[in-house]
């Protein structure tokens, strides 16, 4: 059997993706100070990458190509999701945007990455998850991002 260079490149691209290389192990990540919790793919985001503003943790993949921030911060001005998002000054070319009275979710492209932000509003806190991952792997990330997003909770 003869293997061509494109076939080798395809096999390498598929095997290089941490998203599809093995079954994903999920853990619930919680922020005790705020009651924030989210399903977290701990087998993908294996390294701590610092703390965000407010409460929470940043994680990244071992190769640094994707990262996630789980955080909660005070909603000092008691902004609605729409007002809070407007103050953040998101780019005008957002690919996906959903804003309700309780949360917002936005996503778009920045360079060779997809970014996705979801923030839930409860009381005087904003509970958020922010994810950045390679645009070329967008479809491989769809189910993972959906599960993370839909699992974001506050107590």
Entry keywords:
155 residues; alpha+beta; seven-stranded antiparallel β-sheet; two-stranded antiparallel sheet; globular; signal
Q: Would you state the CATH class?
A: Alpha Beta
Which fold name fills CATH's third level, the topology?
Protein Transport Mog1p, Chain A
Mean pLDDT: 87
Number of helical regions: 3
Q: How many β-strands, per DSSP?
A: 9
Query: Widest sheet: strand order?
Result: 3-4-5-9-8-7-6
Assess the beta-strand content as a share of residues: 35-45%
Shape: globular
Number of domains: 1
Rounded to the nearest angstrom, the radius of gyration is 17 Å
Distance between the termini: 58 Å
CATH architecture: 3-Layer(aba) Sandwich
**Unreliable stretches:** 1-16
- Derived structural class: alpha+beta
Keywords: Signal
Signal peptide: 1-21
Any chance you could write out the topology, listing elements then pairs?
Blueprint: H1 5-16, E1 26-31, E2 36-41, E3 47-48, E4 55-60, E5 67-74, H2 81-88, E6 96-99, E7 103-110, E8 113-122, E9 125-134, H3 138-151
Antiparallel strand pairs: 1-2, 3-4, 4-5, 5-9, 6-7, 7-8, 8-9
Describe the protein in words.
With 155 residues, this protein is of the alpha+beta class. It has a single domain, classed as Mog1/PsbP, alpha/beta/alpha sandwich (Protein Transport Mog1p, Chain A), CATH 3.40.1000.10. It is built from three helices and nine strands. The strands form two sheets. It has a seven-stranded antiparallel β-sheet with strand order 3-4-5-9-8-7-6, sandwiched between helices. It has a two-stranded antiparallel ribbon with strand order 1-2. A hairpin with a 2-residue loop joins strand 8 and strand 9 (125-134). The protein starts with a helix and ends with a helix.
């Amino acid at each position: 059997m003869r293997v061509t260079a494109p076939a080798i490149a395809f096999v390498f691209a598929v095997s290089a993706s941490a998203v599809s290389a093995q079954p994903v192990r999920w853990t619930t990540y919680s922020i005790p100070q705020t009651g924030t919790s989210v399903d977290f793919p701990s087998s993908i985001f294996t390294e701590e990458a610092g703390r965000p503003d407010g409460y929470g943790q940043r994680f990244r993949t071992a190769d640094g190509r994707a990262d996630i921030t789980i955080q909660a911060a005070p909603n000092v001005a008691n902004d609605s999701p729409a007002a809070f998002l407007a103050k953040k000054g998101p780019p005008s070319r957002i690919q996906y945007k959903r804003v309700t009275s309780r949360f917002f979710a936005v996503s778009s492209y920045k360079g060779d990455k997809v970014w996705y932000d979801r923030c839930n509003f409860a009381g005087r806190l904003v509970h958020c998850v922010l994810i950045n991952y390679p645009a070329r792997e967008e479809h491989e990330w769809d189910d993972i991002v959906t599960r993370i997003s839909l699992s974001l909770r506050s107590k």
